[in-house]
Write a structure and sequence with these properties.
Largest sheet: 2 strands, antiparallel
Structural class: mainly alpha
Number of strands: 2
Mean pLDDT: 89
Shape: globular
Number of domains: 1
Helix content: over 70%
Distance between the termini: 43 Å
Order of helices and strands: HEEHHHHHHHHHHHHHHHHHHHHHHH
Oligomer: single chain
Number of helices: 24
Low-confidence stretches: 246-253, 463-469
Strand content: under 5%
Radius of gyration: 23 Å
């Protein structure tokens, strides 16, 4: 039986490696050839053009030079200078985020502002937003977890003797989550690869990650959710590590502590962003194969709890609020209407938001069954059109893919466009498009660095045995999750902003890939 389980484990992992390579190769080739961008902040129409190969080559060369200098500087005192570089990276995010907070003057808009306003009401015990029809939450009940998070922060904020609006406090907390994610991924890389050069490469990539910097001032659930997922991922690796060695009673106890911490982290992750379900399914897949390989009860326990967290976190929070308010919420805009909308044209890009999901739900009188009937008809109609016009179908889904995965800015300017007032001129010029010739190519270059490193990681064999001492599947957890997001958003509503949090999980792989690439280059570098 053990041989049979090991054979399944090994065979599926071989398939996984090939899929990882094909997926990362697709990302690399796409971003080498194409770039998607937005010039007009009014229409926010996504444009596509061929990329500047010469600029890309120059950028890759410059990054290699910077990487070699960083590794050479760190090699003189590896332990201390690596930690110092980690501190400098976090310090950069704290400093730059403060500049954005003071001078960019971003305010939440659209759904982000609506969720914030509801949380403000809840923070003063006004639960009138819990209503079966006349409520934003009856259209989008999945936002209830984000509201709960904001309510906690705003109740703390209201205790302070300050008059500033509460979303400034949320931005400050976002910086904490940013630093936590960087720390957790740094520790994860340390556990997986045991190579300080990969840590340094990761930190250098994160310093250059301009979209991530701008998203620290985006008042929504992306940053805290992906940070908590990174913490949960680190805890899973700790569990796998400690389960390998149970020679002492102390080490037998340690995995359960990490398990509990991972449970808390993943609850927070699911609470803040329902789409994190994609990543949680990836987590459950990894743990399932550990169950297949080792048959340990502790892994089965983890699998069951992760499933409960994935499917019960948001319904539980909603039930608590319904009880607090003494009222009900409707089931919300249906999933089928999002899928139907993902097959339709939009004035921004293929499959992006065009209002179909909302208007269908409204016109159906908030009736889930009727909304699903209309959505099924729309899906059937669009499917027939694609069948009769296959060239248009290819063009549509190619455009939908490129608009999400080849936008190096990941819509960071669109997400933070709303102006509180008093924005400094340099940022006014940035949002007006005056600096597009610099900003967009730089973001595209960072995306190319990311995808190239990931493709090299997936292509080259794992040479260091330490890489796989924990779990082969856990090593690929980030790529599995991102591939799941790729499949999901090819059917669901599209938006490059939705893609951005997932791409943060690729940076550790890119760091490994770049160190491997430096080793493979002609005239092998000693510092690599």
């Amino acid at each position: 039986m053990q041989k049979f389980r090991s054979a399944i484990y090994t065979k599926v992992f071989s398939i996984l490696k090939y899929m990882a390579f094909l997926f990362t190769l697709l990302l690399l080739l796409s971003t080498l050839i194409f770039t998607c961008y937005i010039e007009d902040m009014g229409t926010q129409k996504v444009l596509t053009r061929t990329d500047n190969i010469l600029f890309s080559i120059l950028g890759l060369g410059l990054f290699l030079l910077l990487l070699k200098l960083a590794i050479k500087w760190t090699s003189k005192n590896t332990s201390f200078r690596s930690r110092l570089f980690l501190g400098l990276t976090m310090g950069w995010y704290i400093f730059a985020s403060a500049i954005l907070l003071v001078f960019c003057r971003t305010a939440p808009g659209g759904d982000a502002m609506t969720v914030f306003r509801i949380a403000e009401q809840f923070a003063v015990n006004d639960f009138s937003a819990i209503h079966p029809t006349a409520s934003y939450l009856s259209y989008y009940p999945h936002q209830i977890g984000l509201v709960a998070y904001y309510e906690i922060l705003l109740r703390l904020w209201n205790l302070l003797p300050v008059s500033l609006i509460g979303f400034h406090f949320i931005k400050v907390i976002n910086v904490f989550w940013t630093c936590l994610m960087i720390l957790c991924q740094y520790k994860t890389i340390d556990m997986l690869f045991h190579n300080y050069k990969i840590n340094i490469t990761y930190l250098l990539l994160m310093i250059c990650n301009v979209p991530f910097l701008f998203y620290t001032s985006f008042v929504y659930g992306e940053i805290p959710s992906i940070s908590l997922f990174s913490l949960g991922y680190l805890c899973i690796l700790k569990v796998f590590e400690k389960e390998k060695d149970t020679n002492t009673s102390e080490k037998k106890l340690l995995p359960w502590g990490y398990m509990l911490l991972s449970f808390v982290a993943f609850i927070g992750c699911m609470m803040l962003r329902k789409n994190a379900m994609i990543l949680m399914i990836a987590v459950m897949g990894v743990v399932l194969f550990e169950c297949i390989r080792y048959g340990k009860r502790s892994f089965f326990c983890m699998l069951v709890v992760y499933a409960l967290i994935t499917f019960l976190t948001l319904p539980t929070i909603q039930k608590i609020y319904v009880q607090r308010a003494g009222n009900e919420l409707s089931s919300g805009v249906t999933a089928l209407s999002y899928i139907a909308m993902g097959m339709q044209e939009s004035n921004r890009a293929q499959g992006w938001y065009n209002g179909f999901n909302l208007t269908t739900y409204e016109n159906s009188g908030l009736n889930k069954e009727l909304a699903n009937k209309v959505s099924r008809e729309a899906i059937a109609e669009r499917s027939l059109f694609f069948k009769e016009n296959p060239s248009h179908a290819v063009e549509f889904y190619a455009g939908k893919y490129l608009s999400q995965w080849c936008d190096g800015t990941y819509a960071c300017l669109q997400a933070t466009l709303n102006n509180l007032g008093g924005r400094r001129q340099v940022f006014v010029n940035l949002y007006s498009g005056k600096y597009d010739l610099l900003f967009i190519p730089f973001c595209n270059l960072i995306q190319l660095l990311l995808y190239l490193g990931c493709a090299v990681f997936a292509f080259l064999p794992i040479r260091n045995k330490a890489d796989t001492t924990l779990s082969q599947y856990s090593l690929y957890l980030g790529i599995i999750g991102v591939f799941g997001a790729f499949l999901f958003h090819m059917f669901w509503e599209a938006n490059s902003r939705y893609i951005f949090p997932y791409t943060l999980l690729l940076y550790p792989y890119a760091a490994y890939g770049w160190i491997s690439l430096m080793k493979a280059l002609p005239g092998r570098h000693e510092d690599a």
